Amino acid sequence: MSTPDDPLVWARDHTPVLESFQEEYGESKPLSGYTIAFASHLETKTGVTIETLNAAGAEVLFAPSNPQSTHGDVVQALDEYDGITAFAWEGMSDEEWENAQHDLLEHEPDFILDDGCELIAKVHADHPDVAANVIGGGEQTTAGIRRLEAMEDQDVLEFPVYGVNDTPMKHFFDNVHGTGESSLTNIAITTNSLISGRDVVVCGYGYCGRGIARKARGMGAKTIVTEVDPRKALEAHMDGHRVMDMDEAAEEGELFISSTGNREVIRERHFERMPDGAILSNAGHFDVEIDLDALGEMATETTTPKEGVTRYHMPDGRALNVLAEGRLVNLTGPYSQGHPAEVMDSTFAMMFMAAYDMLVDGPDLEPGLYNIPDRLDRAVAARKLETLGISTETMTESQEAYYDEWERPEDGF
Ligand code: NAI
After folding, report:
1. pLDDT for res 323
2. Alpha-carbon dihedral of residues 35, 39, 45, 48, nearest 10 degrees?
3. What is the pLDDT of residues 339-398, one digit of tens each?
4. Residue 280 confidence (pLDDT)
5. 61, 109 contact by CB (below 8 A)
6. Using CB atoms within 10 A of its CB, is residue 274 exposed (0-12), middle (13-18) or buried (19+)?
7. Predicted confidence band at 128 (pLDDT cuts at 50, 70, 90)?
8. What's the pLDDT at 246?
9. Strand pairing report for 319-323 and 309-313
10. Choice from 169, 179, 210, 232 to test ligand 1 binding pocket (greatest atom count within 8 A of CB)
11. What is the pLDDT of residue 199?
12. Which DSSP state fits 371?
């Protein structure tokens, strides 16, 4: 099989917003003089983002947000650039991964673009002298926002952080469409079996779960949703999914996909009820959604029937199959390539804007977690539409005036 001459070419073709930043800022280099730390799953789209930050003048230090998701060819391609330093290699152990993040932080970045709050938590916990001089940060995941909220509640944040995850340009596209399509694609490729006709249980009906469930149904699955939030459960019901508790879902499901950002969502009592041959996977950020410690204790042995699949043999003869060791199935499976490039273009454009806004425009922000300004979100949406050749309406003066009205005009509302 042919290998690409440059592993970033295909991603560049499908990330037109990032490419437009490279064109716009390639000469003026507004990020010159700043060192930006970047943590993410290191594959081709992150490669283009790192390249874009560097093209805009920044020195970039990058480390993986997960030890299993680094693509060696991307690291090698980025190694060719001046001003880009890798703290990553393919096949890192958990310990090497932790150490690499600490090594990166010792290089005293001015700004941190994070995934899962890995670097921001570590810089506060273990490198307080470095944290004291960090200008700001951006966080792209739901899991990372939760940790940042906890840090803010405990009043420990030393610098302002933009919650990029919470912008419409991130969660409506990346979480819903990106996680939805890439999780199902990777499950289908890893198992080489049909989603169509299967009883698919989606745990959690947030942005990711909603995307997974809707797309699974679109592929012909019989979808079941579990939730803890009654409004989300009702939404899933109204969207046409069957909604039930996990005990019942465990008995009915054939394929399980967890995306809650919570722990032990699928646990011992559920393993006891699952049918022989059930497939279990996780799309949530941390590998704690499926309680693999409990499953390991219940099993008599584990085998590997296929690359990326661990089979737990239960004493009663059933076999339960766990994909990608319970880690993010769309990013850490043997064939995974992460989200489609088109959605990461929007997410990473927002990460770029977070750094640009704090470093170049320099808003006066106290330490804390902030929503990214709406004007930046709109600007990225407009740029994305432009690259797609899609036009929108512009309000007329009378329409704008109409929206500003609160007293009943003579000709009525
Ligand atoms: P969200 O907060 O919108 O949704 C999570 C949902 O799970 C909520 O509706 C919550 O009520 C529900 N939930 C919590 N505990 C539950 C339980 N025990 N059983 C059933 N439902 C439960 O979060 P979002 O954006 O959907 O993210 C979910 C996870 O996916 C996070 O860990 C996030 O970091 C991760 N994520 C993964 C991506 C990927 O590439 N695989 C991309 C983006 C986010």
Report:
1. 97
2. 10
3. 899 999 999 999 999 999 999 998 899 999 999 999 999 999 999 999 999 999 999 999
4. 98
5. yes
6. buried
7. very high
8. 98
9. antiparallel
10. 179
11. 98
12. P
Q: Which residue pairs, CB below 8 angstroms and at least 24 apart, start in 101-108? A: 101/39, 101/63, 102/126, 102/127, 104/37, 104/61, 104/62, 104/63, 105/37, 105/130, 106/130, 107/35, 107/37, 107/61, 108/35, 108/133
Token pair 């989603």 in the structure block, residue: 195
205, 235 contact by CB (below 8 A): yes
DSSP notation for 82-129: TTEEE---TT--HHHHHHHHHHHHTT--SEEEESTTHHHHHHHHH-HH
- In a 3-state reduction of DSSP, which class is residue 67? coil
Ligand 1 mutation target, pool 68, 164, 175, 245, most atoms within 8 A of CB: 175
Which amino acid is it at 322? Answer: V
Q: pLDDT confidence of 69, banded at 50, 70, 90?
A: confident
Task: Name, in order, each residue with C-beta under 8 angstroms of 317's C-beta and a sequence gap of 6 or more.
Answer: 276
What distance in angstroms lies between residue 187's CA and the mean position of ligand 1's atoms? Answer: 18
Predicted TM-score of the model (pTM): 0.86
C-alpha dist (Å) from residue 68 to 23, 97, 181, 225, 329 = 33, 9, 20, 28, 11
Q: Which atom of ligand 1 is nearest to the CA of 142?
A: 34
How many residues would you count in the chain?
413
pLDDT of residue 225: 98
Phi, psi of 266 (to 5 degrees): -115, 115
